[in-house]
# Entry
Amino acid sequence: EAFDVMVVGSCMTDLVSQAPRLPKAGETIHGHKFFIGFGGKGANQCVQAARLGAKTAMVCKVGKDFFGDNYIQNFKDSGVHTDFVGQSSDAATGAASIIVNDAGENAIVIVAGANMLLGSEELQEALPAISHAKVLVCQLEISSQTSLQALRMAQGNKVKTIFNPAPAIPDLDPDFYRASDVFCCNESEAELLTGSSVANVEEAHWASQELLKRGCGSVIITLGPQGCVVLKAQELTLKHVPAPPVTAVDTTGAGDSFIGALAFYMAHYPTMPLEEMAHRANQVAGVSVQAVGTQASFPFKKDLSAELF
Ligand code: RIB
Ligand code: NA
# Structure
């Protein structure tokens, strides 16, 4: 059985507080709501792809603890294959402390824990599945060496790769670009990687050209309410893909919803133009920002217009 989408990446338990604004250093403020949710960029992307109808598998590590047990159940409930979900007693399940303000913006601290214990041994076990998958997706909430190895493994087997350099690191190994069929990041990650401002479509155009030069097949830079820009190596024509106008209540995980959707489209409609996939992924992510939480806000196929399929 071949998977449409495999994700080698993170799982985090999201501990979310909603407050009028983000606190300053040394300050205590009252929030109005607290909830626990399933998050982590890798798992979020995998679950979004699954909700659109992709056959998915997650390669990850959680702790042998309550949060880890719960997370495995969440994958099962979401129809994500769990044979490559490991549990370790050497570290706790990853956790993300998230504060969301009234404008729907957020600040996040992640403690990766067990995510950092995912390594080449686990990748070797997943290799037969990875080599037959349609699309492999990686981020940077696990060891970056593990991510790079997974991308290379996929590329060596002609599996399409999506790399999301999040959270971004300034000294990203240049091999990541060459191992990415689609390199997809947001504006702040693009700023960190290029060293220049990415605040509008014009600047995103420049940044995408800079990133493309480093060797990836295509670049997508997401721009929140401004949608995204798409640049392909073969065409060198920049496309700006606007996002639908929505009222955001919580943008946490919107980028993950976008990437999960993109992975679904790449697996199901391999000949669809990348800008059309990005257009559809914008609609999916646009739904996610209108409800609180990360996975809790991600739409299912049945919630979306038939035109997206
Ligand atoms: O991208 C959103 C995710 O980032 C959250 O779910 C949180 O877990 C952090 O990893
Ligand atoms: Na949301």
